[in-house]
Amino acid sequence: xxxxxxxxxxxxxxxxxxxxxPCAGTGSRAGTEGPKQYEPLAGRMLVLHTLAALAQxxxxxxxxxxxxPDDRRMPAGSGYTVVACGGATRAQTVANGLDxxxxxxxxxxDWVLVHDAARCLxxxxxxxxxxxxxxxxxxxxxxxxxxxxxxxxxxxxxVAATLPRQGKWLAQTPQMFxxxxxxxxxxxxxxxxxxxxxxxxxxxxxxRLVQGSAQNFKVTWPEDFALARAVLESRTx
Length: 237
Prior knowledge:
The protein is of the alpha/beta class. It has helices at residues 46-55, 90-103, 124-134, 179-189, 196-202, 222-234; strands at 17-22, 40-41, 44-45, 60-66, 81-83, 111-114, 140-146, 151-155, 158-163, 169-178, 208-211. The protein has a single domain (17-234), classed as Spore Coat Polysaccharide Biosynthesis Protein SpsA, Chain A. Belongs to the IspD/TarI cytidylyltransferase family. IspD subfamily.
């Protein structure tokens, strides 16, 4: 493996922060007829709640939404750019989005925050917390939540072992890394990697864990919609 080095960055070109939103998944576990990110939730599409929160993060220089090539459901809007560069997997979609950012003039030393479209309860304060914690970090990091429940290992539908929860964290997003480093990590990890931090780990680097929130969950299962709706409605009362 080649040694890890940070790309050179001209002193007169300040480092910027970009957000990318992979939005090309089908959300098959959610039990919806179409992709879950387009399901109505508390008066608007689920993904629009996500975008509304990210739009309030003032340090973000750009916000890129990557959809499937044949997707016509993502509405255009101010504050974000929709690009039909989605791939067959999340990792491929993110990699394509990073390439697009680079084509649009982003530096390899710029920071990129990758966020799940279905984490619609993220708040600007959480994103700012991540940026504050990682802006001077040598690697980058991710929002995460310490595991609160007892963790079981399964075999054949039965408990095979109880695993210690001490030191275990649930990965969330955004996950924040330098553009050049993340492009390399995803290229070497391959299309099957499930999050950006895993690709960074495969390079032998350790991402910083930044305390997230239990409310920053990913809408995955049918019952998650009711919970997300309740949280959103509680924020407006």
